[in-house]
Design brief:
The protein is an alpha+beta fold. It contains 5 helices and 6 strands. The protein has a single domain, classed as Bifunctional nuclease domain, CATH 3.10.690.10. A hairpin with a 7-residue loop joins strand 1 and strand 2.
Length: 155
């Protein structure tokens, strides 16, 4: 099962692992690699529709986990007539984290996770120094990925 690992940009630098579907993983990977399909895929279409209707994605927020399922929100703002985006979202739409991330990487929107969610489900990232053996670090990470399950992150 594919997994997205979100990392805190500063501070403790915890990881938030989220299991996602293969189609969504492919959509995220395609966008991150800068690959453009000959015709728009679902998340490309969503990005186009936002622009056509004068809205932009201000940010996404991974908000909570319930019964081993993560939830997210799209924070949309209407583009002002002068082209500036407002600070507060005009619309907040609930969605799957994988769809939110796939859309965010397409439009360059920031990705956030609720602090209490990271406190609850986040995993401490290993501290890597120049002295650490890269092979050992990779083996530990592979072991983590191969053995992780949704129950590991449930409250």
């Amino acid at each position: 099962t594919p997994m997205v690992l979100l990392r805190e940009p500063e501070g403790r630098r915890r990881l938030l692992p989220i299991l996602i579907g293969t189609a969504e993983a492919t959509a995220i990977h395609t966008s991150l690699e800068g690959l453009e399909p000959p015709r728009p895929l679902t998340h490309d279409l969503m990005a186009i529709l936002l622009g056509e209707f004068g809205a932009s994605l201000a940010r996404i927020v991974i908000t909570e986990v319930r019964d081993h399922t993560f939830y997210a929100e799209l924070h949309l703002v209407a583009t002002d007539t002068d082209g500036a985006d407002g600070d507060e979202p005009d619309h907040v739409i609930s969605c799957r984290p994988s769809d939110a991330i796939a859309l965010a990487v397409r439009v360059g929107a920031p990705i956030f996770a609720a602090e209490d969610l990271v406190d609850e489900c986040g995993q401490e990232a290993a501290v890597v120094s120049d002295d650490d053996d890269a092979e050992e670090i990779i083996d530990e990470f592979r072991d983590f990925i191969e053995n992780v399950s949704p129950e590991d992150f449930a409250p």
